[in-house]
TrEMBL record:
SUPFAM superfamilies: NAD(P)-binding Rossmann-fold domains, S-adenosyl-L-methionine-dependent methyltransferases. Residues 290-578 form the Polysaccharide biosynthesis protein CapD-like domain. The keyword Membrane applies. Gene3D superfamilies: NAD(P)-binding Rossmann-like Domain (3.40.50.720). It comes from the Bacteria. The keyword Transmembrane applies. Keywords: Membrane, Transmembrane, Transmembrane helix. This is Polysaccharide biosynthesis protein.
Length: 633
């Protein structure tokens, strides 16, 4: 029996049709017997053969028309029952029409109408019940296979019901559904197809009763906070957590348990969906020429994905990294949108190359995401950080002014606030330059280019960020390395960050620094600990967390505002505008000229000393440049 069920994962359609026809034949015979009170002699005297043949032909035609055989038998549900009824009604309609025509011409019926309707009810019942029987056989086999993993589904609604169907239908899945849980107390004690529903606070009891090993979240639009509560409780009881990625296939009766996957840390750190002013964004981007620098990076590539959906006339993507730029180009072209895509390999510090790109393609709006961002690496290579993050930005900004670009959106970082490292300071100086350039343009009534800065913290899953590193360490069996037990960071998903960059860029009129609401800071140790638990491993037994000490230039706590800055709200609650000091363009340029001389002279100490003068709040931390800090007071 086991071997047969393993092989018959899907019954061939011809077998389903054959079984259906046999059951319909049986139904007609039973209907004749019922009609004539089981007097076989009366049935024979009526000569039922022509009526049986008519019924079989009508049933076969109806089956082909409605494709009632198309459903996978072990997935049978309400929709299959309705399809059977539609098929039988169509068959009855055909028989009635033929009967009426025959009666009109001969004064006799091919088959008694009473037999037709009795057969309709019997066949509908048999066709549905045989499918349920096959489904239950598969479920019974799976339940008694001895390798099942007891599962609780959180969510006793439509999504939960679909999850139950998927788990029970997949013969090769090890899941065995033992209970539902739901926040709705009115559902407590009720059942869904024989599976009991419990209150959401009963997980401990279910673990004890059924040795539950996994909880599957099957609720659409569950809030992030509630999702975290559920996951934390499950992990506390040693229960792994999964969720349903999409219900689309299941709604089409295409049940695949692979739609259930392990929940990961990104699912718990994301936030509620942002409400964007899409109409305003559409007006600002549609039909325009948009340029994105750093387009092969995590932020730049996501900006490209989102911006192209607003259908600019042309989109110019710039980066030095050939292979990832090729990848994002291929992805964007596969969308089949009418936007003309221009792909440029270019160094943003190369004045001639950038000038030629702007001259040839005439961008109207620039999103500047190109930058060096890794703190310890830039601490070891400060000249490169200054060259790209400051002078690369200056080159782009100056070129934008010369070519009358309407808006320039610079992407900055929370590390620019009270910087403790070279990278953060270079980004702060870049902020200062574009602000001063915006003020200079405005004072001369040039008004050609508006400069807007956006500032936010770490993004989840970006290249070289903490989560991918932790995942890699987990795969290798550990240890997971954390620099300090108290270190915290702000986090935001890449799509969310880019949505806010686009809205802030469109919203800005020039000179603003927009700060994004990053939510609450997260302790990196807690993040690592939860990732270990989500992986099903035991902390300090399977995986250890090792503290390595703060790296060069690293902060314990990130900030979004410096000591002299305040914020004012905007129409988007996730975007705040910083009230910042103004800088004189001429003075900034003089300092940058000196900075460039120090780069050319390869004098790192003089270069960093000047950076500390330009940004007095820059105090090096765990760095060889601490000796250069300006004295207090």
């Amino acid at each position: 029996m086991v071997k047969v069920l393993n092989k018959l994962t899907v019954l061939p359609r011809w077998v389903v049709i054959l079984i259906d026809q046999f059951l319909i034949f049986t139904s007609v015979c039973l209907a004749f017997l019922l009609r004539f009170n089981f007097h076989i002699s009366e049935v024979i005297s009526y000569k039922p053969l022509s009526g049986i043949i008519l019924t079989m032909v009508a049933a076969f035609a109806s089956t082909l028309i409605t494709k009632s055989y198309a459903g996978i038998v072990r997935y049978t549900g309400i929709q299959d029952g309705l399809r059977i009824i539609r098929t039988e009604l169509l068959s009855v309609s055909m028989i009635v029409i033929v009967n009426l025509v025959y009666y009109y011409n001969t004064g006799k019926n091919v088959i008694p109408f009473s037999v037709v309707f009795i057969a309709f009810f019997i066949s509908s019942l048999l066709l549905y019940q045989y499918r349920i029987l096959v489904k239950n056989l598969f479920t019974l086999y799976k339940t008694n296979s001895g390798t099942s993993v007891p599962v609780v589904v959180f969510g006793a609604g439509v999504a939960g019901f679909l999850t139950k169907q998927a788990i029970e239908a997949d013969l090769h899945s090890s899941y065995k559904l033992v209970a539902f849980m739901d926040d709705d107390v009115q559902k407590n004690g009720k059942e869904i197809n024989g599976t009991k529903i419990y209150n959401s606070d009963k997980l401990n009891d279910l673990v004890k009763k059924h040795a539950v090993k996994r909880l599957v979240i099957a609720v659409k639009n569950l809030s992030i906070d509630r999702k975290n509560e559920i996951v934390d409780e499950a992990l506390a009881h040693g229960v792994r957590v999964s969720y349903v990625t999409s219900f689309d296939k299941w709604l089409r009766n295409d049940f695949d348990v692979k739609e259930i996957r392990d929940i990961n840390i990104e699912d718990l750190l994301g936030r509620e969906v942002i409400k964007l002013n899409n109409g305003t964004i559409q007006n600002a981007l549609q039909g325009k020429v948009i340029c994105i620098t750093g387009a092969a990076g995590s932020i730049g590539s996501e900006l490209a994905r989102q911006i192209i959906t607003f259908r600019p006339t042309t989109m110019i993507i710039i980066d030095q990294a050939e292979s990832p730029l090729f990848d994002i180009e291929r992805e964007l072209r596969s969308k089949g949108l009418p936007t003309k895509l221009i792909v440029c390999i270019a160094d943003i510090c190369n004045k001639e190359r950038i000038d030629r790109i702007f001259n040839d393609f005439k961008p109207e709006m620039v999103f500047h995401a190109a930058a060096y961002k890794h703190v310890p690496m830039m601490e070891s290579n400060p000249s490169e950080a200054v060259a790209v993050n400051i002078f690369g930005t200056k080159n782009l900004a100056d070129t934008a002014v010369r070519h009358k670009v309407k808006k320039f959106v610079m992407i900055s970082t929370d590390k620019a606030v009270n910087p403790t490292n070279v990278m953060g300071c270079t980004k702060r100086i870049a902020e200062i330059y574009v602000q001063s350039l915006n003020g200079y343009n405005s004072s001369l009534a040039l008004g050609n280019t508006s400069f807007v800065t956006t500032r936010f913290g770490n993004v989840l899953g970006s290249n070289g960020s903490v989560i991918p590193i932790f995942k890699e360490q987990l795969m290798k069996g550990g240890p997971i390395t954390v620099t300090h037990p108290e270190i915290t960071r702000f986090f935001m998903t890449i799509p969310e960050a880019c949505e806010l960059v686009i809205e802030a860029g469109v919203m800005g009129r020039g000179g603003e620094i927009f700060i994004f609401d990053m939510g609450k800071p997260i302790k990196i140790y807690d993040l690592a600990r939860k990732m270990v638990m989500l992986s099903g491993k035991e902390l300090n037994k399977d995986i250890e967390i090792v503290f390595t000490g703060l790296r060069d230039g690293e902060k314990l706590y990130e900030e979004l505002l410096n000591d002299q800055e305040n914020t004012i709200p905007t129409h988007n609650e996730k975007i705040l505008k910083a009230k910042v000091s103004e800088y004189q363009y001429d003075e900034v340029c003089r300092n940058l000229d000196l900075l460039e001389d120090f780069i050319n002279d390869k004098n790192e100490h003089k270069m960093v000393t000047l950076m500390k003068e330009i940004v007095p709040e820059y105090k090096s931390n765990y760095s060889r440049f601490e000796v250069l800090d300006l004295p207090q007071g």
